Amino acid sequence: MRRFLGTVAIAAALCSGGAAHAGLINFDNPGVIDIDNNTGLATYGEAGHVISGPAASFLPIDGAMVGGFDATPFMLSLAGGGMFGLRSLDVAPYDLGFGPGMLVIAGLMGGTEVASRSVDLAGSGSLSFDAAWAHLTSVSFSATGGFALDNIATVLEPGSFALTGAGLLLIAATRRRR
Q1: Is the pLDDT of residue 100 over 80?
Q2: Rg of the chain in Å (alpha carbons)
């Protein structure tokens, strides 16, 4: 029986470290943006993520998140905190009347920039991100021209799965010592 329980615990631990969960933010049915009248900060939530920043820095329009109204950045993070990886997104210019500019995307870990990418807003396209964009706590978007973001694909980091697996291994080891 002891060997059986140990085997089950190890199998559960190995299975718990499986694929991370993916999230897709597509702005197809945008919800309400909450604006704090005292601070002027706005938040928008979708697919387990939160976009936040000054109220004038972003707005969901036409099935996309539009920004670049000024050079003020807005942030993407997980609702409730935690780490995630940025995998891909679609970006396009959005005419705000002052021409295309540059979009700067910065990956942050605890407020420290760990990855950065600049995009010329004269064109549009899909962007893919490499391993440098994993283990982020937030992503910042700022631009010198109007831009639209869509289909933001993220992968939630499986830290909670690893903790569960470690706990099961500890239980198995404890039972084995008895």
Answers
A1: yes
A2: 20
